[in-house]
């Protein structure tokens, strides 16, 4: 598995870059496991792709000496679901880049429509050679700008089913507590052999935000299921059958999550809209990721529940 | 309370998940509000956006060093009397008795109060002549050792 989601860079100016990522790239990333009819994209992968394009721009600007490490995101919007087979046009704009910090925003479009956007994602820069081999990074960049990666080496994008098949464990290990369907905590230990560490990063493996978000998403699904069960025991409102990530805001990461770390995820429901005519509801949650009693990450997430 | 401080207070409260009422001018961000080094970076980014300012890189430490020699300022990170005196000058909003013998350079962020950020913003908005003004150094916690900003 390669945890690299930009397939080509088509334009790059001092503070702007454009590129693309294919969701139908290498088959192994999208081919559903046996028995699964239709793969579903891990939605955070598109945001990850936007971030990776911004990273390429920063790396180019600092001559491959320092890589951005994401710490804060003001807003991530997930406006539309992206079907398999799509080509995602990516763009990123750097608002700040100095020797130690950066801020960027970016978008992902499919057929001219914005499907996801990131507003003001900031962080610091780490020496590249502490994370990976700079020569290898330069070679990959050269291939991306020189017509893109050949089809047979395209990384594609990650389906939930493929991600699931790669995991030695599920996204969450253990349910610790559910309180009246309004809050929940779960536990997950990150194994040393998790598939994303090879690329993220070879010399200093850290858990990608998209994976942390997937853990949070898996925990949220459990919470919202419990929430609806709790509702249904009090009323005759229909149970929701589908939960879709709609975005996040005020993401803050205070420390790396490393191989071997055992994390607790605590989720609470902040607000819930009344069902619309089509039965859809919007729910906002806040999630905390905690290691040894210390908060590593917090974010507020928006979900849509469809009947 | 000035409108400016109200905004600074709201930003600090948001960044630290604190009750705004707890963010008083003299509240120590680290001791009273539980801030860690990375929170300073968050606060700086938010202040810069809210006020459309740039809190230039540098260091309160750099300003305090001024024309002092290395030995006059600090020895093995331990601030000397002249260094302490200069630090009191560049951080007038801080409880001056907290800047006392035994203070190390790494302790400077622990001196920061909400009023420190209020002053820094005011100086940037007011065209302060203190062109080297800066945010506190980040030296501990999850921050990589090479990062010496914030802001």
CATH class of chain B: Mainly Alpha
Calculate the mean pLDDT score of chain A and round it.
85
Shape of chain B: globular
Q: How much helical structure, as a percent, in the residues of chain B?
A: 40-55%
The end-to-end distance of chain A, rounded to whole angstroms, is: 35 Å
Q: Report low-confidence residues of chain A grouped into runs of 5 or more.
A: 25-33
Which structural class should the secondary elements of chain A be placed in? alpha+beta
Number of domain units of chain B: 1
Helix and strand string of chain A, N-terminal first? EEHHEEEEHHHEEHEEEE
Question: Nearest-angstrom radius of gyration of chain B?
Answer: 15 Å
Please, how many helices of chain B? Answer: 6
State the end-to-end CA separation of chain B.
25 Å
Strand order of the largest sheet of chain A: 1-2-4-5-6-3-9-12-11-10-8-7
Structural class of chain B: mainly alpha
Largest sheet of chain B: 2 strands, antiparallel
**Low-pLDDT segments of chain B:** 128-151
Number of helices in the DSSP assignment of chain A: 6
Most extensive chain interface and residues per partner: A-B, 17 and 20 residues
Oligomer: heterodimer
SSE pattern of chain B, N- to C-terminal:
HHHHEEHH
- Tell me what the CATH architecture of chain B is: Orthogonal Bundle
Short description:
The complex is a heterodimer of chains A (307) and B (151). With 307 residues, chain A is an alpha+beta fold. Helix content of chain A is 23%, strand content 39%.
List the helices and strands and how they pair.
The complex is a heterodimer of chains A (307) and B (151).
Chain A: E1 8-12, E2 16-22, H1 27-30, H2 44-61, E3 66-78, E4 87-97, E5 101-110, E6 113-127, H3 128-131, H4 134-145, H5 160-166, E7 174-179, E8 183-189, H6 209-234, E9 242-253, E10 262-272, E11 281-291, E12 294-306
Antiparallel strand pairs in A: 1-2, 2-4, 3-6, 3-9, 4-5, 5-6, 7-8, 8-10, 9-12, 10-11, 11-12
Chain B: H1 3-16, H2 37-51, H3 60-65, H4 70-73, E1 74-75, E2 78-79, H5 81-90, H6 114-125
Antiparallel strand pairs in B: 1-2
Helix pairs in contact in B: 1-2, 1-6
